[in-house]
Structures are given as C-alpha cells and as structure tokens.
Task: inverse folding
C-alpha cells in the first residue's frame, strides 16, 4: 500500500440542497470544527459552476492544510477524485482516487484506487430505503476484506456511531446530512471529530 495521504477523520460530503446555509459557509464552518477532507458532489451543476465551487473550497481547505476530493472522474483542475462503484474502470491517473463500494464483490474489483467508502452503514435520511445497512459488524467484516483504507458512509450522525465505525477499523467516516443540516456545523464537526479516536486495534504497532 502506498504511503500517500488518504481521507481520514471526519470527511464532509457536500449537498447544497439539504444545507441550512450557503454551501461555502457550511464547509468553512466544518473546517473550523476540524474537518480536513471534503468531497465535492453537486453533480447537477455545470462543469464551469462546479469548477468555480471547487476553486472556492480548495482555498478554504488550503488554509487549514486540508484536501478537496471531487466526485466523478473529472478532478476539476485538482488531483483527487471519488468514483462511483459503476465506473469508470480503470480509474483515471490522478494523484488520489477513491471509489464507492457496498459489498465484497465491489471491493474485489479495486485496482489502483487509494481508498474506498463502504455504505450504507446505518439507515440514512438522505437516501431512505437505501440498503440494507451494514451496521458495525458488517462493516468490520468488509474492512477486513478491503485491500485499501475504508471510510464508513451513510447515516452517521452521532459520536457513538463514529466510535463504533472506528472500532470496526475504518480510516474515517464520511458525513453528509449531520453537517449539511446542522444549525452549527463547527460544533457538530468538532463533536464528531473528537469521537474519531483510533481504537487500540487500529493503531500502528511501533
């Protein structure tokens, strides 16, 4: 496995349609609360609109030493993408590539990807009926089978859920609704980030 940095901690997935505030403000607030990785979705926007948004978000993250990942194969002038399970295969040759996975079959298709998301871990308001949920036990089994670091995704809203995912061996948790809908994204980001403490089993041995 390469030594490059992959998303970890609390990773914010954007969705301006459910955000309580303008998207850039929510991202700024989440970064103030400790978020260092953001995945830009907003796939319904034009490429020019998404590229402009990517530029704004990269500037916010750069000040905090963070990284923007763009959903889809086009990195929008950056060097990090997150791909859907359906493709493209092989992944584009950019600096950092993630892929959405949902089961062992999809994990087994990974080739040069650097990390994967596994979902849904818990029931989710963003995609009701999407499932069935893996829950922490199912997540733990898939993390053990994954050739790359894993982010837990879907329905993660509480510190207890974050801690359960960390105990299952994930590198991070990807959060959408809990931060997008938050009255105070900084407070929620700080609370979830504080819960993301590596379990003894996942700490590297000296």
Result:
């Amino acid at each position: 496995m390469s030594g490059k940095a992959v998303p970890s901690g609390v990773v914010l997935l954007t969705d301006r349609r459910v955000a309580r505030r303008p998207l850039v403000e929510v991202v700024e607030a989440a970064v103030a609360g400790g978020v260092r990785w953001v995945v830009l979705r907003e796939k319904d926007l034009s490429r020019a609109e998404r590229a402009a948004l990517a530029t704004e978000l990269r500037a916010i993250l750069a000040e905090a030493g963070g990284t923007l990942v763009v959903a889809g194969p086009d990195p929008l002038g950056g060097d990090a993408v997150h791909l859907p399970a359906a493709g493209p295969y092989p992944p584009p040759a950019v600096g950092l590539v993630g892929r959405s996975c949902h089961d062992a079959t999809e994990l087994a298709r990974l080739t040069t990807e650097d990390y994967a998301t596994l979902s849904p871990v818990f029931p989710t308001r963003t995609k009701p009926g999407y499932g069935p949920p893996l829950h922490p036990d199912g997540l733990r089994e898939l993390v053990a089978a994954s050739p790359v670091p894993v982010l837990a995704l879907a329905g993660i809203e509480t510190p207890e859920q974050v801690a359960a995912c960390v105990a299952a061996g994930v590198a991070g948790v990807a959060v959408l609704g809990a931060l997008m809908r938050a009255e105070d994204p900084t407070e929620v980001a700080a609370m979830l980030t504080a819960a993301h403490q590596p379990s003894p089993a996942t700490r590297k041995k000296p």
Summary: Residues 199-206 have pLDDT under 50 and may be disordered. The chain has one domain: 9-195. The radius of gyration is 16 Å. The helical segments are 23-32, 47-64, 104-108, 135-145, 159-167, 177-180, 185-195.
